[in-house]
Amino acid sequence: MEDFPLWEQGIRPEFPQLKGAVQADVAIVGGGLTGATCAAMLAAAGAKVVLLEARRLGRGASWNCTGKVTSQLVGIYQTIAEKAGMDAAGAYARLMREAVTGVRELCARLNVPTQEQSVYVFAETIDDLPALNKLHRLESRLGLPVTEATDAGGCPFPVELSLVMHKQLLLAPLPYLLSLVASAEKNGGVIYEHSPVRAVEGRRVLTENGAVKAETILLATGSPAGCTSLPRLAMLQQRTCQTVVLEGGPPLLASHLSVQPDELTLRPTHTGALLAWDLGRTGTREHPGRQLILQRTLRALLPDMRVIESYIRQDVWSGDGLPLIGPVKPKHSHILMATGYSGWGVCNSYLAAKILTAQLSGRPLADAGLFRPDRASPKLMEGMRIAGAYLGGAGRIGAPTCTHMLGKLRFDPESQRWECPCHGSTFTALGETLDGPAIHDAQVSARQR
Fold this sequence. Notes:
By secondary structure, the chain is an alpha+beta fold. It has helices at 33-44, 76-84, 86-110, 129-141, 173-186, 287-301, 345-360, 381-387; strands spanning 20-29, 49-52, 68-69, 115-123, 146-148, 161-170, 190-192, 197-201, 204-207, 210-219, 236-247, 255-258, 265-268, 272-281, 306-318, 324-329, 332-339, 410-412, 417-419, 426-428, 433-435. Strands 3, 4, 5, 6, 11, 12, 13, 14 and 15 form a 9-stranded mixed beta sheet that branches. Strands 1, 2, 7, 8, 9, 10, 16 and 17 form an 8-stranded mixed beta sheet that branches. A hairpin with a 2-residue loop joins strand 8 (197-201) and strand 9. Helix 2 packs across helix 3. The longest helix is centred in the first third of the chain and has 25 residues, at 86-110.
């Protein structure tokens, strides 16, 4: 049973800590969905893979991923169309549809249970109807199988109108992740836990007690470990998401997503539902107000459901809506990254693994260039300015500084952790690193706590 979220209890295997020096074809840093999927695909392709996880497998953003496998990404397509063009949005929509099929087939091979479902996007009020109609027109142009719903799909609260996408999937993320890891091990992959990476030097990945020498290094840690360069950092924004486990009430028949991208999403479980809620950019002051809205929403819209548990995760969003997948720097093509999924981890982790496996096999995918991490756009120059705003001394006097790029940290009393508004690093109340891109712990005094 151990430390799984309540909504997906299971048995977690133990993996050793890396001690000493080992060699590999590919060293993967990060044991979330991306790292596990890449490990499974690369090992199946014949690569010698070593995967390093700082804590326990799946303990980062994958920990409370809601497990929706869908090409219905609501506002992401609009962002891509506006900032990268309709051709890019169309290609990404096609790849997301292929990812749904790919995850379905992968789960079948791994004997991982999935549940077919419909995904509804709803307009809660009349004021939301223009946004819903705009989404319908765009997704129809992109070739996505979306139609206006003739019913509300069993939505537990009143809505004005919905769009529906059928034949999507649900899965339990951690059992899925552990099945991927088991597949990697079966094909010769080696997994290490409790092995936080402290540095990447050339082709060596250094941990506290060991090192991996590899031809290729893949950073699959959300915010790439040690990344301090623009325009990559300007492309990324770290946001905080809360997942609430609900029980009771009538059974849900489908997943429901608000047409407002920063609002709630709701998916069924065996005993109730999961509600995911965007709390805003990490390290900002949006959290307290968002928490109050969430509590009122639960009481008003879902009065028959009770909160069993609540989890916090960090989602890394991309400035133009497209993930960043490929070399961190063109001159260092042996160091790859995969991040910027904007809250849609299952399909994008599959897409990243597919792109990177093809690239390392010498058969790059035709659309891989869309996701180059070194891409830049004039529309993102403002993001670069914001990324450097920490130089003005964001935060309050006396706050500790982030060990990534010295941004002033802010303390969030709700989650009891320090957060960096520059690039989203988070630390415990004692200063221990929780989420990157920071690698080293922050120095927090008793007075600051």
